[in-house]
Amino acid sequence: MLFRSLMTSHNPGRDIYNADAANALPAVVAEALLYTRPGVLELLPALPEQWDKGRITGIRGRGGICVHELDWDLSGLTATVTVTSDTTQDVTLISRRGMTSVSTSAHIGPSDQGPHSRNISLTAGQRTRITVSLPTSGARLAGPAPAGPATSPH
To answer: Which of 16, 33, 80, 140 has its CA 20 to 30 A from that of 69?
Structure first.
């Protein structure tokens, strides 16, 4: 059984707490909302349909990226993420839902991974806010985004 506190119970009854799931659930939720690996920042890769609007803060991503906050509003067709990178690097920003536009103070370039992605140049230690406008409908990536290094057009 899963309690509101995200603690689980273990057989033989509901009065024995089990911390196994409680230790894993935060990572499951975080990776449903934001997936990172070196050179890649993917927004809302496995967002449950019931979570059409929300916000999460304080995620430490792989590849030296700190995600200060991620806000999304599917009815408003936007997702906004604020990040700081430990190093100056180019990352591929991916949205399986697609992108109609991306706005940020950082340099934005096209990605060889298609219209669902852009290359973003992050400067070490600089807080960067990125807003993605989502399409009203259309095809979504069904599987994982293709692997590959982020490339810079400059």
So the answer is: 140
